[in-house]
């Protein structure tokens, strides 16, 4: 099954059209349809995975477990500027990230 087919099938199971998934992920209405022939950026694919409630590995066909994360218990450094965190498929604004970081540090 291709990436596009997995997204389409998963969206249907969740009761979403591909246009609705694109909208919820903050993408253009036809963006996912382009993935029939081209590979999306990692952060864009992550946004779609977040909307669908599955892992990127599942969408890529690396696992048949929708909730699987091959990274296991990989820890991320919230201070790393290259780490992209999202909420409902949209990037978290910098000012909100500062609040989240303070809460996680317990300060």
UniProtKB/TrEMBL annotation:
GO MF annotation, one: DNA binding
Superkingdom, natural source: Bacteria
Xref: InterPro entries: Cro/C1-type_HTH, Lambda_DNA-bd_dom_sf
Pfam families given in the database record: HTH_3
Ranges of residues in domain HTH cro/C1-type: 7-59
Protein name: HTH cro/C1-type domain-containing protein
Protein's organism: Loigolactobacillus rennini DSM 20253
């Amino acid at each position: 099954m291709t990436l596009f087919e997995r997204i389409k099938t998963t969206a249907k199971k969740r009761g979403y059209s591909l246009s609705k998934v694109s909208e919820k992920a903050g993408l253009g209405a036809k963006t996912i349809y382009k993935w029939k022939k081209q590979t999306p950026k990692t952060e864009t694919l992550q946004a779609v995975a977040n909307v669908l409630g599955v892992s990127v590995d599942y969408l890529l066909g690396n696992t048949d477990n929708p909730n699987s994360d091959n990274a296991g218990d990989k820890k991320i450094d919230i201070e790393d500027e290259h780490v992209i965190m999202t909420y409902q498929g949209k990037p978290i604004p910098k000012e909100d990230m500062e609040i989240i970081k303070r809460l996680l540090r317990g300060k």
